[in-house]
Amino acid sequence: MTDPVDLTRALIRCPSVTPEEGGAINLLDRILSEAGFATTRVDRGGVANLFARWGEGRNGRTFGFNGHTDVVPVGNIDDWSVDPFGGEIRDGILYGRGATDMKSGVAAFAAAAIDFVSETPPDGSVVLAITGDEEGDALDGTRALLDWMDANGERMDHCLVGEPTSPNTMGEMIKIGRRGSMTAYFTLTGRQGHSAYPHRANNPMPAMARLMDRLATHMLDEGTDHFDASTLAITTIDTGNPANNVIPAQTRATVNIRFNDAHSSDSLTNWLQGEATRIREETGISVDMRVQVSGESFLTPPGSLSALVSHAVKAETGVTPELSTSGGTSDARFIKDHCPAVEFGLVGKTMHQVDECVEVAQIHQLKAIYTTILRDYFSQTR
């Protein structure tokens, strides 16, 4: 039997802070190859990615797992009570950067897949798509894997992303979709002048305050069937003016929008542009706007895939999971264009924190859930 805890500890000891490979992808490549998986490195843009398949990719159904081995920086190492890359176990708790997000998840589905195909070879294929670029810009990670799969005729019929999904208790939540995320950057330019003679200047600050107030107080929606209401947050307003007697020529602001399936990034961009134009017409202030889209909202409607995962979770934990679309973004936002995708993984309370950790028992439990999913999936008739 493949021990998912030992594999998690080995992965934690790989210092794979985005975009460094750190040895984690190499380790999985070796382990999966030795277990009979056909592995291919799909590196792009300096990012290490791994595609591994057991079985004939074009024969029978194919179930896929997706996850990442890259981790966020540790921060101030003096704040840690353990070596963040030591994989230390204390009192049944495994510590280290990536223990929750998400080296345990990768280890659990790799261990489940290895043991499953060796014990009960399925009529079909098992795919593992593992990236080293989820915590960064995500331009050359799962996107690169999917591009390579499309170019080489590789497919997944369904995919489970092993991100931590449960807020407090193991098994309490499955993600069946995610909100979209976009950021808008505004630069307002007026005319500099002396604060004693404001009529000789055109101050961009009141215009910016008016624009930000309109954006922040506008109700985007009241939520949809599977999503909470969309939100807009002002994250910064910056002028950088050190003088108290000078009206600045320029000021900048940034807003972040998390949106549900009532919107698209295009529709929201059009709304933002309309508000910017309105401010320009009212004030004579020049408005420049730049938009960056991290991902569109998506939903995998409740159905056979979510039921499959829910059944396995309840069988192994006794908990009936909630189907949710809460939280931030994940690589499921890319996979949803390839095949139906849901997310299920560990309790995520300590991800990205100092002394990130996970209960050892939960890692074994997660492997058991993934094994049950594979067994039930391949026992179903097509």
Question: Can you characterise this structure?
Answer:
- This protein has 382 residues and is of the alpha+beta class.
- The chain is built from nine helices and 19 strands.
- The chain has a six-stranded mixed sheet, sandwiched between helices. It has a four-stranded antiparallel sheet with strand order 12-14-10-15, covered by helices on one side. The chain has a three-stranded antiparallel sheet with strand order 4-5-19.
- Strand 4 and strand 5 (93-95) form a beta hairpin.
- It starts with a helix and ends with a helix.
- The mean pLDDT is 96.
List its traits.
elongated, 9 helices, 382 residues, 31% helix
Find the structural class using helix and strand composition. alpha+beta
Q: Percent range for helical residues?
A: 25-40%
Fraction of residues in β-strands: 15-25%
Main β-sheet, spatial strand arrangement: 1-2-6-3-7-18
Shape: elongated
The overall strand count is: 19
**Count of helical segments?**
9
**Average residue pLDDT:** 96
Order of helices and strands: HHEEEEEHEHEEEEEHEEEHEEHEHEEH
Tell me the radius of gyration.
24 Å
Could you provide a short overview of the structure?
With 382 residues, this protein is α+β, with helices and mostly antiparallel strands. It is built from 9 helices and 19 strands.
